[in-house]
Amino acid sequence: MDLPDCVNARDLGGTPLAGGATIRMRALLRSDNHDLLTEAGIAAVRELGVGRIIDLRHGWEAREFPSPFVDDEIYRNLPLLGVYPGFDPTAPDDYRPEVDHAPERVAAAFTAFAEAPPGPVLVHCHAGRDRAGIMTAIALAVAGASHEAIVADYTATEGAEAKTMQDLLDHFDSEHGGVPAYLANGGVSPHHLTAVRERLTGVPGQDS
């Protein structure tokens, strides 16, 4: 997507699913933080008809680098992750301890996605790599994307290593029984899982 001056802005539409299906266009969008958007970029977001912006940054980040949409009804600041015991910001990327530490935060962001009004849902963090990568990976997994497809989207972001996302997806499977089970344990309802799946695929389904 062309959202001046955003980076890592893209539509997840076209991501392959099982059976030859794909994620719908303009259902799930991702980007970096919006405080550098030009007037043209702000107008471009509005022209997309975005139904909800989910800002996954910490509260202090949202205050220091405010979104131009902060006063809009579509905007939600829902910090995805907390600082877990033993957190080391200098360590190599590893999202597994983070998602284990903050299932209720992940569930809150996912629920906001599920309850979004019509229109694309745009998720972002600061750089558009880590927290946005986790959230989009979770949404794609719920929709039925393979690990390979999720990793391919993640590594389209500069600096993102395939192993980081593959380790996270394997962790969801081995330690939590899969992404839907992880979300359910965090408080996400079957109705919300179904709502996101339908939103991303366009295929009606029964509650999981």
Unreliable sequence segments: none
* Number of DSSP-assigned strands: 5
Mean pLDDT: 94
**Rg computed from alpha carbons, rounded to a whole number of angstroms:** 16 Å
Please report the number of helical segments.
9
Q: Count the domains.
A: 1
Distance between the termini: 32 Å
Secondary structural class: alpha/beta
In the CATH classification, which architecture applies? Alpha-Beta Complex
What multimeric state do the chains show? single chain
Strand residues, percent:
5-15%
CATH topology name: Protein-Tyrosine Phosphatase, Chain A
Helix-strand string: EEHEHEHHEHHHHH
CATH superfamily: Protein tyrosine phosphatase superfamily
CATH class: Alpha Beta
What does this structure look like?
With 208 residues, the protein is an alpha/beta fold. It has a single domain, classed as Protein tyrosine phosphatase superfamily (Protein-Tyrosine Phosphatase, Chain A, Alpha-Beta Complex). Helix content is 43%, strand content 8%. The chain contains nine helices and five strands. A five-stranded mixed β-sheet has the order 1-2-5-3-4, covered by helices on one side. Strand 3, helix 2 (59-64) and strand 4 form a beta-alpha-beta unit. Helix 5 runs antiparallel to helix 6 (147-154). The radius of gyration is 16 Å and the shape is globular. The mean pLDDT is 94.
